[in-house]
Amino acid sequence: MDTTDVLIVGAGPTGMTLANELLLAGVSTVLADRLTERGELSKAGGVQARTLEALDQRGLLEPLLATGEHPSAVGHFAGIPLPSQAERRRLSWRSVPQVVIEEFFERHLETAYGVRVRRGRELIGLDQDGEGVTAMFADGSALRSRHLVAADGAHSTVRSLLKAEFPGEPGRLTIVAADVRLGGEEPATSHTWKEDGHWAALFPIGTDAQGRPLRRLVLGGPGRSLPRETPVGEAEIREGLDTVFGTRLELLELRYARRITNASRQVAQYRHGRVFLAGDAAHVHLPLGAQGMNTGMQDALNLGWKLAAAVHGWAQPQLLDSYHAERHPAGAAVLRNVRAQSLLMDWSGTRDPEVLATRDIFRELTRIPAVQAQLADLMSGMALRYPVPGAEAHPLVGLPAPDLPLGPSRLHELLRSGRGVLVDPEDAFAEVAAPWADRVDRVGRAGLLGQEGQGEPMLVRPDGYVCWAGDAKGADGAAENGDPAAALRHWFGEPR
What we know:
Elements: E1 2-9, H1 13-24, E2 29-33, H2 49-56, H3 61-65, E3 75-77, E4 80-82, H4 98-113, E5 118-119, E6 123-128, E7 133-137, E8 142-150, H5 157-162, E9 168-169, E10 174-184, E11 191-193, E12 199-207, E13 213-220, H6 234-245, E14 249-261, E15 264-266, E16 271-272, E17 275-277, E18 283-284, H7 291-312, H8 321-345, H9 353-365, H10 369-380, E19 405-406, E20 409-410, H11 411-414, E21 420-423, H12 430-433, E22 440-443, E23 458-460, E24 466-469, H13 485-492
Parallel strand pairs: 1-2, 1-8, 2-5, 8-17, 21-22
Antiparallel strand pairs: 3-4, 6-7, 7-8, 9-15, 10-13, 10-14, 11-12, 12-13, 15-18, 16-17, 19-20, 21-23, 23-24
Helix pairs in contact: 1-4, 1-7, 7-8
């Protein structure tokens, strides 16, 4: 029987992000997918700020953006534009379709690690014990792994085989989503509503092979909520464009179209023994702002280094449990904001006066810069603060680490090894950190090249989150938050 450390079921953005994390950490990984070839379906059309930061922390952002024209775009909340947050941070929303991300990661995994997706492998059964998981496939093959991760989408086979609780709300309506090439005069804003309740949304999703711009078109309103399995053809797309835009827009090419529902569900537990659920296998919702794909990739970034630590034998018992503790609230927050947006957007086109009045008030509030910033951070995952020890004692702990300039490098660049980083500008913790030198890189006074004394000490996990931070030394020469030894032991295990 074939064996591996970790089997990932599902080769979408979540599965391939996780595979990269594990392979970077030296963990043998098999990535299996039931599809015989990569799909051409872009369920998401962009990458949010937190995911962009994470890609930068692995050295993958620039190569990804070099695959084509991927402009910055204006985000939105319930169709209300949120101005670019570029002035607050170096990275903001970029239009990178899911199909581009999948192609990029698949090539990267093969080039960097010699790992190919095992396609045409349909999972039909699994059995786990205290030592590992045995997965059975429809072709009669089986594979034994120490851990298994379900990244196999909204209709997850793994989730069904586990009989995992998947509470929430079923879909009550459908809307049309299509990737199209258009001609004519496009509207100035991404969302357009008609008085009769019909509406449309348009978002850039890059270009085709000839460099022509492509758009994600979403249509809704009275009479458009048809059964999910009802095919979507060119006639329906042309009629929808005509209803909302008249003769201003013309359909030049329909690349694909489907109906999506407003189902909203989340698994009760992200961990089932040696099996973990991530991405759409763990949470489903109406796609808004590419939050599904981005949340799934962030699930993978959280889980990857923890699984690697378990495989390498230094993970503390609670480390794998922290995946559920940190990512379940993250998924719940996405479902909550999507429900709020669904209400404000009036998907079904009822034009309820109370909803319209609420939306008008909300639009006025979004003119306040602080509100814009909070909503943008909420959508991107930047607002999420993990419930880690010490989060109540320091404003940085539990949040993504700022991309500090550290001598000739940036903090993000130092995370490209997949190891933790201890920023120690005063050389106060050299002896404390030494026993963890095989897992954590310490950047001290010499490494800062003239920037010593600037900033404050902090310990950053491999996924880019601060897990300890201390204030500058007090009068007695000690850091006010104590030394990072407890955090090192908690997150990076007992020293060898």
